[in-house]
Structures are given as structure tokens and as C-alpha cells.
Amino acid sequence: MAKTKPPGGSVPNRPLYSRISFLYQAATYLGTRDDQHASTPTTQDAKNQGTESEEKHDGFDNSHVQQALSRRFLTDLRATSLKSQIRLSPAMKHTICKFCDSLLIEGETSSCTTENRSKGGRKPWADVLVVKCNTCGGVRRYPVQAARPKRRPAREQQEAKKAAGQKKRKTARMQVEKADIVMEEG
Fold this sequence. Notes:
Elements: H1 14-32, H2 35-38, H3 43-47, E1 56-57, E2 60-61, H4 62-84, H5 90-94, E3 110-115, E4 128-133, E5 139-143, H6 152-185
Antiparallel strand pairs: 1-2, 3-4, 4-5
Helix pairs in contact: 1-4
């Protein structure tokens, strides 16, 4: 006899999905964390104000350490997904630099612009979102989803149908007007 499956289904490799999710959340937390609110002064630091501040530790700034740790988490995330052949969601991929594995936060670690290189920008469906990583200078381009017009034969056919419909309505309107005139006379 076959085993009965538990209701609700199961996800294969659930621990790997959980690990990937944790690594992404941890990297996002460290990448977006504000250093001013992260460090809380202790009583010993209040006494030693003239010595070394808490933000500096062995010559490194706390934000650089957090960014490096965030990059390490994203490197582990990428390695885990590649080794276990788990696809990352496109939304997650768009927030990770493909070249240096840093978290792309618009305005902080990346800059976003929209460009259109088509014949002077006349084609609105050719807009491309350009994301540039401020850490390594890597550039990625993503198409902006705009409705693309139909090809000329399809447009002409649609316009012909539209013109035929308008012509039918016009003739029907004229027949109604003629009938109204005949009724008024009689």
C-alpha cells in the first residue's frame, strides 16, 4: 500500500527554502539598518567619551562592516540556490547585484534611470530601466513593461473594422432620421 500524503501538500527542500529566505532577510536587514539607531551608548561609553567612539572599531566604520556582512549573506544565498538548483524569484534577483553580490537599494547602493535609445525616444515600448551598482559599477538593464502596439496589418484590419462599424451606425442613424421626417410629414 502507498503512503498517504498529509493534507495541504509539502514543499520539497523546505529547509533550503527557509535558509535562502533567512539569508535574504538578514542581508536586507543589515543593508537597510540605520547606524545612528543601531548603536546605543552604554554607561562605560558615557564615561569614556574622549577615547574611542562605539562606531569605530579597529579603524573600520560600522556601516562598512554591516555592508560586508550583508554581501557575505547574499554570496551564501547565491551559492545555496545554485548548489540546490532552486530558482530565485525575479523580484529577489533584481535587488542583488550580479557582479559583486551587494544589496541594491535605490539611492543608497544603486542608482536607477530610465532610458530609451530608439530613434530619439519615439518608441514608448522601448523604455529600459538601468540599475547601476554604486559598489562595483555594474550595470543591469530591465525592460519596462509598456503596451506594444500591434503590427501594421493587424492595425489596418482593426481600423477597417472600426470604420465599418462607424459606417453602419451612421447609416442606421440616417435611416432613423428619415423615418422621423416621414412621421412628422404624415
